[in-house]
Amino acid sequence: MAHKRFSDEDQDQPNQKRMKTRPSLVSVIRDVVKVNSLEYICSTLEPMIRRVVSEEVENGVKSICMRSISRSPSMKIQSADHEKPTALQLIFSKRISLPIFTGTKIVDIDNNPLQILLVDSTAAEHAKAPTSLPHRIKVEIVVLDGDFDRPELTWNKEEFDKKIVKERSGKRPLLTGGELNIMMRDGIAVVGDIEFTDNSSWIRSRKFKLGARVVSQGNSQSVRICEAMTEPFVVKDHRGEVYKKHHPPALEDDVWRLEKIGKNGAFHRKLSSHGINTVQDFLKLFTIEPSKLRKILGDGMSDKMWEVTSGHAKTCTLGSKLYRYCGPSYTLILNPICQIVKLEVDGRVYFARDLKTIQTSYVANLIKDAYIEWNSLEEVHETALLTQGDMMIGHDPNEQQTVIRSYMGHSQSLITDGSSGGDGGAYDWVVNSRF
């Protein structure tokens, strides 16, 4: 029986094996899904793995190279040379004329177009001359933030570029009107007619600077040329130009064109109430009686403000016009601000340089009379007067004093202690004085 049972089991065994090796539909589907998922995962991970490996290899190579460089004396020298400050720089040849208004041409202090020079920064300031390079250089004019304040040549290109100011959203470019990219020849580049289109009030510093940088060096890029920049300045709207102060002022300018005197302000109204409407009016009274002029302006004008205003007025260009004032036995020739050029008494002629030796209150009073009658004075053009004055230098001062004393008829005439009898000082009424 046992033998038979074993025999029966042996007969069933092949069938059981056949049952185990026959895969079911579910297992087949499961195996297919596993294979597809693995292929997808591999295809996804492969680029990522390649990139990570590549980066790690690159970093390793760089690290090895840097260690090699640090151990090499020759490479250290080359690196040090590369970091040395440049000896070449761009500069603006002259300061910019101020103030600056939108829509107004930007010029230098001599009213000429701006010039940019390429110079050797190691040269002394007075010895800086244009330097030529063997290749052409293109220079770009840019606007900088006024707060870019670094010692000369201590900034790098990236720091300079970060301070470039662009136009506000929806506005025109900040600089227009001329070519902003100019070629430099023989170390000189002349800037065309450029102007601002927007004021500077919208940036934090409220000021701009003009800058110049090299954007192309022909076939060579090996030379570092330091950028140029001007002093900071305010750009005002064009409508503010009607209140602009003139430097120098003109005789016919309204008196509010002088520094510290605002249009329709308190000082302007005070001066106008006394008939002082122009710079010429201001200077005439300043010549004759400065203390009176000072009193008109009042305590609201400090001594410092007074010095600024009067100093600005004294830069006025007088021109060549002269004025004749005639009395019973004398003739005065005055310049436009009531300074004496020539005095003729009883046929004798005295020029300004001669009058300095005979200072008389009488002459000062004659000039005051001429000031009062200014509107009736005759305008003349006697350009030969100064030449004639040189011919009169040899006259004896004692003889001059005698002539004027005899004309006055009394001994009160001569003032030898430095006083002219007025508030203007000894020589205020003498032409070419220093006020």
From TrEMBL:
Residues of the Calmodulin binding protein central domain: 250-316
MF terms (GO), sorted A to Z: DNA binding
Region feature Disordered, mapped onto this chain: 1-21
Calmodulin binding protein C-terminal domain segment(s): 321-380
Location of the Calmodulin binding protein-like N-terminal domain: 88-238
Subcellular location: Nucleus
Keywords associated with the record: Activator, DNA-binding, Nucleus, Transcription, Transcription regulation
GO (cellular component) term, any one: nucleus
The keyword Transcription regulation is annotated on this UniProt entry: yes
Residue stretches spanning the membrane: none
Protein family per UniProt: Belongs to the plant ACBP60 protein family.
Protein name, as recorded: Protein SAR DEFICIENT 1
Highest classification ranks of the organism: Eukaryota, Viridiplantae, Streptophyta, Embryophyta, Tracheophyta
